[in-house]
Structures are given as structure tokens and as C-alpha cells.
């Protein structure tokens, strides 16, 4: 009547290979579960519904959500029968490792709620979300609800009361309840909640119900039909009998490309009678509520437990657990009942599927239980060491008082073989022995919370319980950071980790000594330990004693080349070590590190300064540089004393401050490298020369007679003095006429009566009278020449003289004739 999905030879080989790969990378031996007596009251906490609910029962399902690493929310559904009516109430409590708070009531404002389908925590506004079913006013129609309350105040989330009413969307009446809820997650940019269960159609059949709410609790119109999907199983089989379908669990799933998916699990019965055959199923949907055809054949995988003995099988998948790598495999638990020859056999076993829907492994042969009277919920969780924790509740018989007896246990099983260690009982037990496991929540450091119920009879579960288990080992967690390549290994083995992942967490018996070894990749450098290993600094090995939960950081960085060049005589060393230049003038250092370069001049030399990539450090011999990319730093060294030589053109003097140069006499001197020397050029009085300009290494001072220079190298300086030019001015005087000329040429007076001649030069003036006139003598600065018409003077200063001419007169002798 229903479809069977065969396992191909390829799938079988692939599954075997996957098991081998997992066994290779898994711890050699799974550690036993141990009750953690440091939690609560000797390992567990109990929430009682209270004396006013002492005749209560619940749906045998407790729910839990994590607020943070120290607080959780535990809740369930309680009811009380007061003939002829049942009264219902959801209740929850926030608890920590030591105690639980008072039970609070979850109210919807739509009538008495029936069951708690899920509890979620939303960190964005510190609220708790609840999903489940309610029966407003006692009517036959059941609705699916979501509401939210603030964690600390308990007040209802403003404007948040969404619901799906079965009569409007899914048929005239509802069947069963909301069985599960996904953790809050983001889909299409909206923070959503997903609830699953079942609803009955008008013909008596039922369908799996998947309802999706937005962050404001309103049904998400972008999902399915108006916010919900009715999931059918085998809808295309011609002549298929009526189907009763229920979804018990939902989880967020990532496929190989990282796209989010919904995976749901439950059971289907082919026929509406209690003895009709059935099977488990698992289905994959897109975030729009469409079956994902890449999963198995059409998005749904049917599973039939391979039990022997004949009879009809009724089967449910009651939980989902995704492996640590998204899109890898899906773990679930099959709960089934085989009825044959009037005998009912209940059993539960882990089952594992590949990402494409093919069967990875079926371990039902490990967990057949024999003949019992009833089954409770079974569940599965993946512990932080990737071993699986399997919990089951089987009602194994009837006590002398007529009450069922629970066989409730936990098993730690290997995810590659399905083999489990010996059973561990939960710590809650009351006089009637009626107790069950509802859920398992993985915690860090290989711990788990086990949640369940107990009470006064088969359905009289009026207490909620939570217990914490550990395997007694302590976690060593390694985090590798940085952009470099490298691995961290351990002895004893277990850690094989790099920045891309690997085995970065291992568990050790308290007191174990573990040595971690850093192995840098080619072109990378180990830059150091942090966390619990910080005292090991940058040593490649670090030995730790694991006496508490231990977190270790390790970092690797790419190697960058740093080079040094030198000018002059001296050396440069680096810290960290690597450069010792002259001998080793380049080395590789970790990207992001700081390299200190220290310049040391040789004897008789001084450090003059840095250039190129180190120019920022100037003349400081110690230079700290960030290594972000390859670079070259240049160090310049100079002799301790530098020679300064003065060359003169013309006549003049040069003096230095501090003393050393006194040129004319001393034109060469030595000065300390790095000192500043001031030179002053001065003319010699009466020399006929004056300062003109500096050239050579003092050219920067140009025509400034005072020149300050830094002495960082040998200096060769030229100073030029030029001859002075002195004016000679001649005036013509007397009542006669004449001219004055000069040798050398220049004066031609009356036309040119002033001319400048080089200082100290000799100038001869010739005075020539015109006809009718006679030269009558020199005056002024030329008076030294008397009446001599030719006057020679030496110009040592500006000269100003007059040539006198007078009119010639006749001489009369006594005789009357000359």
C-alpha cells in the first residue's frame, strides 16, 4: 500500500565509507554518562504543579529553552479533572544551576490552552515564545497559537497573539496537538517560529501541520498557504487508503550550498483504525513550504523498522538531531509498536540519514525491547563531543497497585556504529515508578540536560524535572586565529586543529597532562599562545594539566620580508632576531608584528639617520616598524669628525663659530659629525675686495655672508670676494675752457666726468686747455698734483677733484715788446 525506498549498492558503500571516516576522527571510546551532582539538588531540579493541581496530568512532554549559559526556561501543560470538565493550563519557570523560580502561567486570551508545543528564547528583546494548541471556550475546533512573554517581567509581548484556526484553514475539526517547535530563526529577513503537529480533515483523515509565525506572532503569508502547510505522505499513490499523519519534530537545516531548509519528522498510519499498519517518515521543505525534491525522491523518505515476527507496524519519528556539519546527516529516533498474535512489542532506536535522504544506518537491531504495555516519548541529542545521547521511556509492566511501571533510561551511543554504553537511569522516581524522558538539551563541555515528567499514574504526570549529566571528563578547546597557516596537535592525541576547523575540542580525564604542539605552515610563523596557555608565550610546545574546562588560543601569521641597506660604516640588528646587518640584511617576520631595528655605528663613526621605509624614525638609532607588507629600511653612518675646507677667490677673510676656521691663515678644520657650524665672510679693509658669494657645499647660503651648515659629511666650500669699484669724479672749474681724460679710459670730461675704477687701481688724468685758455691747477682730492696737467692717483676710496682752466692774458714788457 505504501512506498518503500530501497538502498542501492552505492548508498550502502557510501554509508560504510562514512562510518569509517567518522570512526577515524572520533574519540577511541565513548565516555559514560554520570549525574552531575554540582547541579541543583544532587543533580536535578523538580517543578511541581502545586497542591491545587494534585490531580493533574500533562501531555508527557516537558519543554526547555536556553536563555543564556546560566539560565533556562522549563515548562509543560497541566490539567485538572473536575467532573464533568477538564481545566487546562500551561505553566513554566525560569531556573539556573541551583534553583527554579515559581511557576508562571502562560495565557493566550483565547480560552484554556491544551498543550505546550515548544518554548523558544528571543535574545533580541529578552522574551520567551510559546507555541501550542488551544480550545477556546470548550468548542470542538482547536487552534494553533503563538505568544511571547518577557523573561524577567512575565508580561505578555505587546501585540503578539497569533493563531491558526483549524475550521478556517485545515478542515472542520482538529486532531492531536502541536508537537514541536523550531528554535527562532531568520527566514526571508524575518525572525520566525515554526510549529508542527497534525489536523483532521472532514473525511476523518489527518495531515501533518507545519505553521510558521512572523516575529509579531502573525502567520507568515509567504509560507505555504496563508502561513501553513498540510503535509500529505504518498499523495500520488492510486487507491491509497485514508492516512493519519502526524509531525512530531522540526529543525532548521542547511543544505550543501548553505541554504536554509526545514526538516520535519513523524509518522503515518495507512488506515484510520488503531491496528492499521504505518511507518515513520522524514521530509525536507524549502523556506517557502515546498517539498525539496533533492531529498530522496520527492522530499519525503519513508522508513519501516526492520523488525521480525510479522504483524502490523505503527511507527513515529519523535525527534531530530542535526550533526555538527550543516548538511551532513540527520539523526532521529524511531518509536514503533509491532502487533502480532495479540502481543504488542514496543521499541525505540536511533536512525541516521544522509543529506540526500538515503539511509546512513539503522540500529534497530541493537534496541529491541521485548513485550511491554506502552511506550513513552523517545528523544535524541548530539553532545558537544559529537557522541549521541539516546533517551527512551517504556512502560514495562503493571505494579501490584495496578499502575504502569516505567523503564526510563539514557544511553550514550556512537554515531558511527549505533553501539551504546550501559543504560543510565534518570534521577526522578516516585512511589508508583511512573516517570518519562521528554527531551535532551546539549550543553557545552559534554554536558546535557535531560527533561522529563513524573506523577501519580500512567497519565498523572504533574511534575516537571530537569537533570544534568556529564561524563566526568573536561573539555580542552583550541581556537586558532591569524591569517597564517599552521596546525595544533596534542599528545595524547585528540586535538588536530587549524584556523579552518578540524578536531579543535577534546575531552580528558581530570589531571591529564596534555602537550600542545604548534606546527607552522610554509611561509607562516607561530606567533604565540593565549588563554590557559598564555604563559607558554611563543614556544612551539606547551604542556598543560587539565584540571578544569580549558580554553587555549593559538595564532599563526604570514611571514613578511624586511630588508636593511647601509650607507657608511655601522651595523643594524633586529628584535625579534633575524637581521644582523652586515651579515644578514634581510629576514622574515610575522605579519602584524612590530620589528625593532637598532643602528650601531662603528668606531670613529656616528649614526646619521634612517631613510626609505624607516624615514619616520629620523636620526633616532632605535626604530620600531609595523610589519604589514615587505619593505626596505636604509641606515646611514658617517665618520665621527668631518673635514671642512675653505677655498677663497679674491682677497677676504672667513671665520667659523665654533672656532676652527680662520682663513686666510687656517682654511681647513675638523668638526664633530652632526654639529652645526656658522661661517662668516669678511672683507679686508683697504684690500679693494668685498664678499660676493658662497659655492660648493655652502651654495645654499648664496650671497648671505653668514652661513650655518650641518656637518654630516666632508664639506668643500668656496667663497668668492670681488674687487670693489670706486667712483672718481672730476669737475671743470675756472673761467677758461678745457677737457680732462683718463688712462685707463673712463673719464672724458666734459662728457663723462664720473667713472668707477677698481679699488687700488692707478688712474692718470690729463687736463688739456682749449685755445685761449690755460690749465691753472687741480683742486679737491686732486690737489696733490698742483699745476701739473697730468695727475696720477691711486684709488683707495672714492675721489672727487676739480680741474681749473683760466683765460689766457697778454704780457707787456717795459720795452713794449715781448
Q: Short description, anyone?
A:
This protein is 3% helix and 54% strand. The strands form 14 sheets. Strands 32, 36, 38, 40, 43, 45 and 47 form a 7-stranded mixed β-sheet that branches. Strands 1, 2, 29, 30 and 31 form a 5-stranded antiparallel β-sheet that branches.
List keywords for this structure.
818 residues, mainly beta, 7-stranded mixed beta sheet, 5-stranded antiparallel beta sheet, 2 helices, 3% helix, 54% strand, disordered N terminus
Quickly count the helices: 2
Structural class: mainly beta
Task: Please indicate the percent range of residues in DSSP E strands (runs of 2 or more).
Answer: over 45%
Instruction: Please mark out the parts with pLDDT under 50 across 5 or more consecutive residues, or reply none.
Output: 1-30, 53-58, 166-172, 399-404, 811-818
Rg calculated over all Cα atoms:
53 Å
Choose one word for the global shape.
elongated
Distance between the termini: 179 Å
- The counted number of beta strands is 63
Average of per-residue pLDDT values: 81
Amino acid at each position: 500500500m505504501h512506498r518503500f525506498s530501497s538502498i542501492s549498492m552505492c548508498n550502502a558503500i557510501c554509508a560504510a565509507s562514512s562510518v569509517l571516516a567518522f570512526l577515524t576522527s572520533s574519540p577511541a571510546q565513548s565516555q559514560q554518562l554520570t549525574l552531575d551532582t554540582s547541579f541543583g539538588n544532587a543533580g536535578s531540579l523538580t517543578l511541581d504543579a502545586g497542591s491545587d493541581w494534585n490531580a493533574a496530568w500533562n501531555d508527557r512532554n516537558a519543554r526547555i529553552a536556553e536563555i543564556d549559559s546560566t539560565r533556562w526556561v522549563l515548562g509543560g501543560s497541566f490539567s485538572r479533572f473536575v467532573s464533568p470538565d477538564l481545566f487546562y493550563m500551561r505553566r513554566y519557570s525560569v531556573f539556573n544551576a541551583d534553583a527554579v523560580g515559581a511557576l508562571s502561567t502562560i495565557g493566550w486570551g483565547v480560552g484554556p490552552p491544551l498543550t505546550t508545543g515548544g518554548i523558544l528564547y528571543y535574545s533580541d528583546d529578552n522574551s520567551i515564545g510559546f507555541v501550542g494548541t488551544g480550545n477556546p471556550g470548550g468548542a470542538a475546533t482547536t487552534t494553533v497559537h503563538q505568544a511571547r512573554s518577557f523573561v524577567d517581567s512575565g508580561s505578555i509581548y505587546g501585540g503578539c497573539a497569533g493563531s491558526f484556526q483549524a475550521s478556517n484553514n485545515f478542515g472542520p475539526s482538529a486532531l492531536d496537538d502541536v508537537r514541536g517547535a523550531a528554535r527562532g530563526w531568520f527566514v526571508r529577513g524575518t525572525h520566525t517560529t515554526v510549529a508542527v503537529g497534525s489536523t483532521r480533515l472532514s473525511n476523518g483523515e489527518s495531515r501533518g501541520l507545519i505553521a510558521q509565525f512572523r516575529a509579531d506572532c502573525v502567520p507568515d503569508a509567504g509560507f505555504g498557504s496563508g502561513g501553513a502547510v498540510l503535509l500529505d505522505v504518498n499523495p500520488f499513490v492510486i487507491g491509497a487508503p485514508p492516512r493519519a499523519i502526524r509531525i512530531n519534530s522540526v529543525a532548521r537545516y542547511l543544505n550543501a550550498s548553505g541554504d536554509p531548509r526545514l526538516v520535519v519528522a513523524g509518522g503515518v498510519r495507512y488506515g484510520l483504525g488503531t491496528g492499521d499498519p504505518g511507518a515513520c517518515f522524514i521530509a525536507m521543505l524549502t523556506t517557502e513550504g515546498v517539498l525539496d525534491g533533492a531529498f530522496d525522491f520527492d522530499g519525503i523518505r519513508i522508513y519501516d523498522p526492520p523488525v521480525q515476527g510479522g504483524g502490523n507496524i505503527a511507527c513515529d519519528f519523535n525527534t531530530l538531531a542535526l550533526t555538527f556539519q550543516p548538511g551532513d546527516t540527520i539523526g532521529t529516533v524511531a518509536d514503533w509498536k509491532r502487533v502480532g498474535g495479540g502481543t504488542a512489542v514496543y521499541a525505540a532506536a536511533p536512525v541516521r540519514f544522509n543529506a540526500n535522504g538515503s539511509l546512513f544506518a539503522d540500529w534497530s537491531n541493537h534496541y529491541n525491547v521485548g513485550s511491554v504495555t506502552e511506550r513513552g516519548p523517545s528523544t535524541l541529542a548530539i553532545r558537544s563531543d559529537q557522541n549521541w545521547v539516546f533517551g527512551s521511556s517504556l512502560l514495562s509492566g503493571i505494579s501490584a497497585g495496578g499502575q504502569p511501571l516505567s523503564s526510563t533510561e539514557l544511553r550514550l551511543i556512537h554515531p558511527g556504529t549505533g553501539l551504546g554504553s550501559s543504560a543510565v537511569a534518570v534521577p526522578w522516581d516516585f512511589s508508583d515508578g511512573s516517570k518519562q524522558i521528554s527531551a535532551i538539551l546539549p550543553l557545552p563541555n559534554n554536558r546535557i540536560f535531560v527533561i522529563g515528567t513524573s506523577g501519580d499514574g500512567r497519565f498523572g504526570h504533574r511534575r516537571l524535572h530537569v537533570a544534568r549529566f556529564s561524563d566526568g571528563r573536561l573539555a580542552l578547546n583550541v581556537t586558532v586565529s591569524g591569517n597564517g597557516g599552521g596546525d595544533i596537535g596534542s599528545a595524547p592525541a585528540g586535538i588536530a586543529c587549524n584556523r579552518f576547523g578540524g578536531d579543535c575540542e577534546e575531552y580528558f580525564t581530570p589531571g591529564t597532562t596534555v602537550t600542545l604542539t604548534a606546527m607552522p605552515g610554509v611561509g607562516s610563523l607561530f606567533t604565540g599562545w593565549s588563554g590557559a596557555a598564555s604563559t607558554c608565550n611563543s614556544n612551539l610546545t606547551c604542556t598543560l594539566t587539565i584540571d578544569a574546562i580549558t580554553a587555549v588560543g593559538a595564532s599563526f601569521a604570514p611571514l613578511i620580508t624586511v630588508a636593511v641597506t647601509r650607507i657608511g660604516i655601522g651595523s643594524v640588528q633586529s628584535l625579534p632576531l633575524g637581521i644582523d646587518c652586515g651579515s644578514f640584511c634581510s629576514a622574515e617576520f610575522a605579519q602584524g608584528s612590530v620589528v625593532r631595528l637598532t643602528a650601531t655605528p662603528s668606531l670613529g663613526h656616528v649614526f646619521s639617520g634612517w631613510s626609505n621605509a624607516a624615514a619616520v624614525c629620523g636620526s633616532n638609532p632605535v626604530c620600531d616598524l609595523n610589519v604589514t607588507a615587505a619593505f626596505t629600511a636604509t641606515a646611514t653612518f658617517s665618520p665621527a669628525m668631518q673635514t671642512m675646507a675653505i677655498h677663497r677667490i679674491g682677497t677676504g677673510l672667513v671665520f667659523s663659530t665654533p672656532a676652527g676656521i680662520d682663513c686666510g691663515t687656517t682654511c681647513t678644520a675638523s668638526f664633530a659629525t652632526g654639529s652645526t657650524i656658522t661661517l662668516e665672510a669678511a672683507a679686508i679693509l683697504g684690500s679693494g675686495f668685498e664678499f660676493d658669494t658662497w659655492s660648493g657645499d655652502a651654495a645654499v647660503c648664496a650671497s648671505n655672508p653668514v652661513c650655518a651648515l650641518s656637518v654630516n659629511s666632508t664639506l668643500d666650500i668656496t667663497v668668492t670676494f670681488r674687487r670693489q669699484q670706486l667712483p672718481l669724479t672730476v669737475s671743470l672749474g675756472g673761467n677758461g675752457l678745457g677737457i680732462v681724460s683718463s688712462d685707463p679710459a673712463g673719464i672724458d670730461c666734459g662728457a663723462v666726468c664720473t667713472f668707477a675704477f677698481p679699488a687700488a687701481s692707478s688712474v692718470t688724468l690729463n687736463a688739456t686747455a682749449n685755445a685761449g685758455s690755460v690749465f691753472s691747477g687741480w683742486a679737491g682730492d686732486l690737489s696733490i698734483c698742483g699745476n701739473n696737467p697730468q695727475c696720477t692717483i691711486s684709488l683707495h676710496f672714492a675721489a672727487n677733484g676739480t680741474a681749473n682752466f683760466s683765460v689766457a692774458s697778454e704780457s707787456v714788457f717795459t720795452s713794449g715788446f715781448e
